[in-house]
Design goal:
5-stranded antiparallel sheet; 14 helices
Length: about 425
């Protein structure tokens, strides 16, 4: 009876050992796996072919050696064994294993106790998967991220990123310097708070929606202190791994000074340096604009002014005296008339033009007399100004209006000068 009872138990033990052996074989034959069987003393009993390939070694070289020798880091080995003792298994433990003559191999390691059918511990199965491609990819991504962060930090242009809801997700040091906001003050906040004019933001977002990008769009931002700044922005969509829109990236650079410089150059190109009045080119531009509005049927008067005996001033007192006389007239005209829109112009030499929209000839006569008297005071030998006035007529062209004003001015000169005549 005792023998009959022991046979089923022995059969179960052999079946358990057979299943354990099959499980171990399956582990060892897993494609790409690095597998080792270790006895209770930590000595390597078996090493599979996957380990040979991954670790660039021969199995015979490692049989009988301690498992710890496969670990370049003694601390990592102690950590793994400590977890195995506490938990009975170790799952997804990332470490490195020693390779032949090459670099250590990064792996994800699983350690499992090998047990006999009756529960006794036979040893340990160690199975690792080579994660070199993943580690290289992660290292590449880290390098690229570090490079991009370096670019963001060192870029002289402000770089601002937002999510799909328009909240700021990135704000580099140049953007901080440009706006006065610190990065932590803007992260998570709506980007619209940076715009001085909400309508500009709407327009540029419509361009972005239509074209997918904005190149050198000009907008005005408002700094933390409330000052407006003009910037040029290049904006594009940010897309995620599924090619869906994840937000926007905007590169902005301050063009406030360049716009001021351009405006100053434009002003200089349209003004006379000596008298600081608008020049001849600007006169014709303004006259064309006023004639284009003649359908409004408001009066327009032209006044042509000429300094009497200007050549004598230059000949007797020198050209500097002549320049002073012209500059004085410029000052009088600028103080009597608004500069914007332009009213007074230096036409050439000692001739000046005044355009008076909304005034008829009679009203212009009053202004002309005031200008003549103001100029004549304190100029020594200079009698003053000869002024010709004419009013816009139906179907007038620029040359016709100028010709009549010129005739009226010469009529004043032939009548003795320093007077006003109307034609």
């Amino acid at each position: 009876m005792s023998r009959a009872r022991r046979r089923p138990a022995a059969g179960k033990e052999r079946e358990g050992e057979r299943r354990a052996d099959l499980g171990l074989r399956a582990l060892f034959e897993t494609p790409g796996a690095i597998a080792a069987a270790v006895d209770n003393r930590g000595k390597i009993l078996v090493l599979n072919r996957g380990a040979e390939r991954a670790l660039a070694c021969r199995r015979e070289e490692w049989i009988g050696r301690p498992l710890s020798a496969l670990f370049p880091s003694a601390a990592a080995y102690r950590e793994a064994m400590g977890m195995l003792r506490r938990r009975g298994e170790v799952l997804h433990f990332e470490t490195r294993l020693r390779a032949g003559n090459g670099p250590d191999v990064p792996v994800v390691l699983t350690l499992t106790r090998l047990r006999a059918a009756r529960g006794g511990i036979l040893g340990t199965a160690a199975v690792g998967l080579d994660i070199t491609p993943r580690v290289r990819l992660a290292e590449t991504l880290r390098a690229k991220t570090a490079f991009l962060e370096s670019v963001l930090r060192q870029s002289p242009a402000g770089i601002i990123t937002t999510d799909r809801q328009g909240r700021v997700t990135g704000f580099n040091p140049a953007a901080e310097r440009l706006t006065g906001y610190r990065r932590h003050e803007m992260l998570g906040r709506p980007a619209r708070r940076l715009y001085a004019d909400p309508s500009q933001r709407s327009r540029i977002l419509r361009r972005l929606e239509r074209d997918g990008h904005v190149l050198d769009g000009e907008i005005r931002l408002r700094t933390k202190g409330g000052e407006p700044i003009d910037v040029a922005t290049t904006m594009s969509r940010l897309r995620d791994g599924r090619d869906e829109v994840a937000g926007t990236v905007a590169v902005v650079r301050d063009i406030t000074e360049s716009k001021r410089f351009a405006a100053e150059l434009d002003r200089l190109s349209r003004t006379d340096a000596l008298t600081e009045l608008w020049n001849r080119r600007e006169f014709f531009r303004r006259l064309e604009a006023l004639l284009a509005r003649r359908r409004d049927r408001y009066p327009l008067t032209m006044m042509l002014l000429d300094v009497d005996r200007f050549k004598q001033i230059n000949d007797r007192q020198g050209h500097l005296a002549g320049d002073r006389a012209l500059a004085r007239l410029g000052t009088i005209l600028r103080s009597a008339l608004p500069a914007d829109p332009p009213h007074a112009f230096r036409y050439g030499g000692d001739e000046f033009v005044v355009l008076l929209p909304g005034r008829d000839a009679a009203q212009s006569m009053i202004l002309a007399e005031r200008l003549r008297r103001a100029f004549s005071r304190g100029l020594g030998e200079t009698p003053g100004l000869s002024i010709g006035i004419t009013e816009l007529r139906r179907n007038d062209r620029p040359e016709g209006l100028i010709s009549r004003a010129d005739k009226a001015m010469y009529l004043a000169k032939r009548s003795g000068g320093n007077r006003v005549d109307v034609l």
